[in-house]
Amino acid sequence: MQKIVIAGFGEVMLRLCPPGKKRFAQSLPGALDATYGGGEANVCASLAMLGSESRYLTALPENPVSLAFAAELRGLGVDVSHITWNTRGRMGVYYAEHGAAQRGSNVIYDREGSTISLLAPEEYDFDAMLEGVNHLHLTGITPSLSENAYRSTLTLARKAAERGVAISCDLNFRKKLWKWRPGTEPRALAEECMGNLVPLVDWIICNEEDASDVFGIRAEATEIEAGKLNVDGYRAVAEQLLTRFPKASKVAITLRESISADHNNWGAMLFDRNAGAFFAPVDARGHYSPYEIRNIVDRFGGGDSFGAGLIHALYSEEFSGPQQAIRFAVAASCLKHTISGDYNYSSRAEVVSLMNGSGSGRVAR
């Protein structure tokens, strides 16, 4: 593995879930399972567990809940020494209710007034935060929180680009967010803001509908709600993204077919500007053949585990080729669906084992 330091900037939240697949009405009053989660934090945690050097950048209030989060991430091997601690604001909360069968999962956000949404770019020491960093990972979630969070993300990206730091960005459109400019529809605000951020990006990551939601770039003959994807149509999506954003060299798109909340088909495409499209998983004949994931434990953080797997692979000696990189990323994110919480507690060896066909779930003795 090359000596690469990968930083992620964004908001982390306290995650509260009913145990198992209960509904809130069944669980409250009563106990909820408390963990932490946030797109960029999830990526940094997964990267560290895969063996990469990662650094998490955020703004938090200095209180016992935030300090417990920093201690958890530090324990996983993530550098948390550049977190911006402030007396204003709070740690956001998200309530997640797991779906089952034909009942979908649901998320309720309680994140208004979070520290990262309040701080202006001038309140960070971005130069110190980027010291020694080779790669910066961003998402479309943090800019959606507030004008200050958007400005801070854009300022950090510009500083990283000026330093020659490679940047990846997961478009991550959230329709419940992007409401900080009254009178502007969320999709229009997302397109405007991400249209300023993505030109700075080297690797674009998105799911099967993000490009459509943010930039109006759609795959033909795809019905997202029906769980029917025209996989080949995503080549054209990637080509259009690379045409619009000439700095970018790669587009990675996860391809989720939702048969039910418990049963998803899962795969992805990596489109390299110079080498074309690569799909994973593939069968013995080289044809795209997605993982059938049944009895899903927790799909939250699945896209983040994919992003982490892709970044880790592209900087590794063994998996840096586009076909191997996308195979590694999809296998890593497939395993995440078997793990509760936002983080992907999967090792590099476990990912490689699944890549090599060991997906039976047999006991390792």
Tags for this entry?
365 residues; UDP-N-acetylmuramoyl-L-alanine:D-glutamate ligase; globular; alpha/beta; 12 helices; 9-stranded mixed sheet; 21% strand
Structural features, described:
- It is a single chain.
- The protein is of the alpha/beta class and 365 residues long.
- It has one domain (5-354): Ribokinase (UDP-N-acetylmuramoyl-L-alanine:D-glutamate ligase, 3-Layer(aba) Sandwich), CATH 3.40.1190.20.
- Helices cover 33% and strands 21% of the residues.
- It has 12 helices and 15 strands.
- It has helices spanning 24-27, 39-50, 64-75, 115-118, 126-129, 147-163, 186-197, 210-215, 233-244, 302-314, 322-336, 348-355; strands at 5-9, 13-17, 33-37, 53-57, 59-61, 84-86, 92-97, 106-110, 135-139, 166-170, 203-206, 250-258, 264-272, 276-280, 291-293.
- Strands 1, 4, 9, 10, 11, 12, 13, 14 and 15 form a 9-stranded mixed beta sheet that branches. A 4-stranded mixed beta sheet has the order 3-2-7-8. It has a two-stranded parallel ribbon with strand order 5-6.
- Helix 10 packs antiparallel against helix 11 (322-336).
- It is globular, with a radius of gyration of 19 Å.
Class from secondary-structure proportions: alpha/beta
Q: List how many beta strands DSSP finds.
A: 15
Major sheet? 9 strands, mixed
Number of spatially distinct domains = 1
CATH topology: UDP-N-acetylmuramoyl-L-alanine:D-glutamate ligase
CATH architecture: 3-Layer(aba) Sandwich
- State the name of the first-level CATH class: Alpha Beta
Radius of gyration: 19 Å
Order of helices and strands: EEHEHEEHEEEHHEHEHEHHEEEEHHH
Question: How confident overall, as mean pLDDT?
Answer: 93
Low-confidence stretches: none
N- to C-terminal distance: 28 Å
User: How much helix is in the residues?
Assistant: 25-40%
